[in-house]
């Protein structure tokens, strides 16, 4: 029986407006289009692991008793994710308000709502779980409790430390693999002296920093591993990071080495940038295989 990935984290309904540019503080910008999409970092990563990564996936999440909850549950189940739902009768389901610019950049404001209801005692059994994937859109003490319990059970702990914030040592001590972007890395490392200097200051066995169009850089077993980004025409980068995380962990759960797992995750993230929305933009496994084959065919022997 295949071992599974367990994602514990947030689920939000995304309210997305497209505009010429992301507004500056105090600025009003007229948008051109509006749509709602299932989202939330945890839910996006679970969908990516199941749909694009091809691994058995479970998710622990908290939802309100409202219409957005039904929308989010339906999207996750359609992707094949097994759900462990904590139902909050007081707070509404989480929401995110997203502005996407013509250059595919975005600005996001999250109202966590029911996501704040997740507690340490809600973590389901870890039997048969190879990796626990966490983010920071749920209470920090809950994330820490989950990481420590998984570490004690011999489960690989992967933390996508987003949104950016300083992290307690007890959490970092329980993490096997940390995924961050440049600003998140700087917040954790406490330095702006460059990516490599920041990587050296983070006491986690494996750290991966995503660099957008410049690819990604990993520090693993004392060595640096750099991968270039796949070139695509970007439309919306909202789900790129979450797609990267979900597919990376799914590949590692299947037994892939770090380099092939990073390559697959990078291809999936690139494809996610070519479509609008969060979960709606996450590619299928066969699409990733096609892109990887096309790129391999263009590399001289």
Structure description:
- The chain has 301 residues and is α/β, with parallel strands linked by helices.
- Helix content is 33%, strand content 25%.
- The strands form 2 sheets. A 9-stranded mixed beta sheet has the order 5-4-1-8-9-10-11-12-13, sandwiched between helices.
- The termini are far apart.
Please outline what is shown here.
By secondary structure, the chain is of the alpha/beta class. The chain is 33% helix and 25% strand. It contains nine helices and 13 strands.
Keyphrases for this structure?
9 helices, four-stranded mixed beta sheet, 301 residues, alpha/beta, nine-stranded mixed beta sheet, 33% helix, globular
Ordered list of secondary-structure elements with their pairings:
Blueprint: E1 4-8, E2 12-18, E3 33-39, H1 41-52, E4 57-63, H2 67-78, E5 82-87, E6 94-100, E7 106-111, E8 129-134, H3 140-152, E9 156-160, H4 169-172, E10 177-181, H5 182-189, H6 195-201, E11 206-210, E12 216-220, E13 223-227, H7 240-253, H8 258-272, H9 285-298
Parallel strand pairs: 1-4, 1-8, 2-6, 4-5, 8-9, 9-10, 10-11
Antiparallel strand pairs: 2-3, 6-7, 11-12, 12-13
Helix pairs in contact: 1-7, 5-6, 7-8, 8-9
List the strand order in the largest sheet.
5-4-1-8-9-10-11-12-13
Number of strands: 13
Portion in helices: 25-40%
Our measurement of the CA-to-CA distance between the termini, rounded to an integer number of angstroms, reads 38 Å
Uncertain parts: none
N-to-C order of helices and strands: EEEHEHEEEEHEHEHHEEEHHH
Structural class: alpha/beta
